[in-house]
Specification:
The chain is an alpha/beta fold. It has a domain at 4-172 and 214-241 and 275-294: Rossmann fold (3-Layer(aba) Sandwich), CATH 3.40.50. The chain is built from 10 helices and 12 strands. α2 (57-67) crosses α3 (84-105), α3 packs parallel to α4 and α5 packs parallel to α7 (247-258). The longest helix has 22 residues, at 84-105. The radius of gyration is 19 Å and the shape is globular. InterPro entries: Epimerase_deHydtase, NAD(P)-bd_dom_sf.
Length: 321
């Protein structure tokens, strides 16, 4: 029985949570960060970073062989970077290199890859994207995620190993990154709470934009179930709430939680345009994995705004079902 998982991107927003979820479920995790530092007792990856000639597929293959028969989880990815070179490196070149390494090592029991809702593009208002929906990305970021996943799909077919694609919609919750509307809202409201500011002012040119928001801890729980129940070939799951929340509604929720009102300004300078409506069909994860969403929007806000270390540690504890 496979009991080891190698998680690349283990210190990232999603990777940190899913590594904790797997470890709590009894998995031995080799968690690898972008500097080649690894937990699990298998040593480190040669080279400080997967750029240029470092972290070649040969070096990665050697590391994977040391890990032995294991599930490989790719939680590496650039999110909405303004630097196209970073997007291509993290979302396209890295998955291609990882696929080569898995083939060279020959030790991967299965592969799990964290994708993005932006691979679907937008959905018709009132509709939902299911796993069978056509991929029609409308942004360079979305196209990079499609291209990167395709390398792992081809590698899995060549190896005859199962591949699971988990397409995460807009991920929110504790330990957020630095980009996107969720990170912006958390940063503004955390600063307002700490300084007792009377109001939050946010630059939001399109407050009616609607997204499907899902807590990172719920995503981690879904990934853990997917790791434990690989399909026979390529399986896709949406990680989402199945509901939509507009940017205006998101800020309404922050205001209600904190008691601090907000005001939008609509400066469109530097606007990154994406779909104006996205919602996922989550029936497959529910019926095939028994997964259900546990955390509400208010739960996510409370965890993200927790100011003391004890509260943050509690918010970070994984949920296993």
């Amino acid at each position: 029985m496979v009991s080891t998982a190698v998680v690349f991107g283990a210190r990232g927003f999603i990777g940190r949570q899913l590594t904790a979820a797997l470890a709590s479920a009894g998995w031995r995790c080799a968690g690898v960060d972008r500097y080649g530092r690894a937990t699990g007792g298998f040593g480190e990856v040669e080279g400080p970073y997967y750029d240029g000639d470092d972290w070649s597929s040969v070096a990665l293959g050697r590391f994977l062989r040391r890990c032995g028969h294991a599930v490989v989880v790719n939680a590496v990815g650039a999110s909405w970077s303004v630097d196209p070179a970073v997007v291509r490196r993290d979302n396209v070149l890295w998955p291609a290199r990882l696929a080569e390494a898995c083939e060279a090592a020959g030790t991967s029991a299965s592969i799990v890859h964290i994708g993005s809702s932006h691979e679907y593009g937008g959905t018709v208002p009132g509709g939902s994207a299911c796993e069978r929906s056509a991929l029609a990305p409308v942004t360079a970021y979305g196209r990079s995620k499609v291209e990167g996943a395709s390398h792992l799909v081809r590698g899995a077919f060549r190896m005859g190993r199962p591949l699971t694609l988990v397409r995460a919609f807009n991920v929110i919750g504790p330990g957020h990154g630095s980009q996107g509307i969720w990170a912006t809202a958390v940063g503004l409201y955390r600063a307002a709470v700490e300084t007792a500011a009377p109001r939050v002012v946010a630059e939001v040119p399109l407050p009616g934009t609607a997204r499907d928001l899902i807590d990172v801890r719920d995503v981690a729980a879904l990934v853990r179930l997917a790791v434990e129940r690989p399909g026979s070939a390529v399986t896709v799951y949406n990680a989402a709430s199945g509901t939509v929340t507009s940017i205006g509604q998101l800020f309404d929720a922050f205001a209600e939680h904190t008691g601090i009102p907000y005001r939008f300004t609509r400066n469109a300078v530097g606007l990154r345009r994406g779909p104006t409506w996205q919602r996922a069909d989550i029936a497959r994860a529910r019926t095939q994995l028994g997964w259900t969403r546990r955390f509400t929007l208010d739960d996510s806000i409370a965890a993200a705004l927790a100011l003391d270390e004890e509260a943050r540690d509690g918010a970070a504890r994984p949920v296993l079902s």
